[in-house]
Amino acid sequence: MLQMRLTVTLLLLLLVIRCVAQEEGQSKGCVCGYPGIPGDPGHNGMPGRDGRDGLTGEKGDQVGPAGSTGKDGIKGDKGETGAVGSVGPKGKRGDNGERGPPGKMGPQGVQGPLGLKGDKGELGLPGPRGPKGEVGPLGPKGFKGEVGPRGDRGIQGPIGSPGRPGPKGDIGVPGHKGNIGYRGERGQRGEIGEKGQKGDTVVVPKSAFSVGLTEYTKLPATNAPIRFDKIIYNEQNHYDPQTGRFTCSVAGAYFFTYHITVFSKNVKVALMKNGAKIIHTTDNYQSSEDQAAGGAVLQLEAGDKVWLQVAGGEFYNGLFADEDDDTTFSGFLIFGT
Question: How far apart, in whole angstroms, are the C-alpha atoms of residue 214 and residue 274?
Fold first, then answer.
């Protein structure tokens, strides 16, 4: 193997010398003949020194063909960290990770200055009707019945015995009519009669209520009793907040009145008695907040029902209530019959 390398090296040197000679001859104007037959190779020279201790030559221009893959060498030492490469294209967004545990509560910040009062927001749509609640507890004890008829008057005691008469005088001559005489002595008091039976105690009938709307019952539905769920007074429980109706328990004359805060829509309400419309109240909304009111005296019998309801459709149910504005409905017995 070493001999073959030496031979190839000698041939290359001969070719180089020849090319140099041709170039010099051409430059001097001489004509060179055809090359002669190569001579026999010379004897093998002495092997040169190991070139490992020589200087490293410059890198050649031509790249030789890739040799066959060598065997895996020994793993070298870790090289130095290379320069930072250019930023690559933005990758696709990864999937959202799982939500981490909540962090610890931070310290309370300094309280900021009181902000200005914001504008009033637009009126939201009425929420969906909630599910039917469970049956409530047993109601309070009923009211005392009506006053019964008055009892008969007791028997009058006997008249007392008359006083003792004086002696009878002689009949005299009729004289002239004299003046009115003095009043005679009062007779003795008669015996006390038997005590009559005790009559029933007179009970004054009572019936009154006063209720209002809240933020949850404002803008009520149309063509149905308005459920006033803010109880101001209802000691006799004659008003039912679940149905919005007042039920008469004592026959008589009653006074009903209502006060309405109007906002964002027109208002048209009717005072109802047993399904019949008694009076109407209408207010066309202009701006800000309007006020409307109404009232009437009604003759009711026991069992009659009275309520207030929207009478003009969805564009006339602008009954409003909040912390600063109220819509109320009240009634009370004036006198029983």
Answer: 25
We report the CATH number of the domain holding residue 250 as 2.60.120.40
Q: Is the pTM of this model over 0.90?
A: no
Residue 201 and residue 150: Cα distance in Å, rounded? 10
Note whether residue 307 is domain-resident: yes
* 75 DSSP 8-state letter: -
Which are the contacts of 291, defined by CB distance < 8 A and separation ≥ 6? 259, 260, 261, 262, 283
DSSP code at position 222: B
List Cα–Cα distances, 113 to 109, 116, 117, 119, in angstroms.
12, 9, 12, 18
What are the distances in angstroms from CA 54 to CA 29, 49, 50, 51, 260?
41, 10, 8, 5, 112
The structural domain count of the chain equals: 1
Residue 15 inside a domain? The answer is no
pLDDT tens digit string along 81-124?
A: 878 777 778 778 878 878 777 767 767 777 777 777 777 777 77
Instruction: For residue 271, tell me if it sits in a domain.
Output: yes
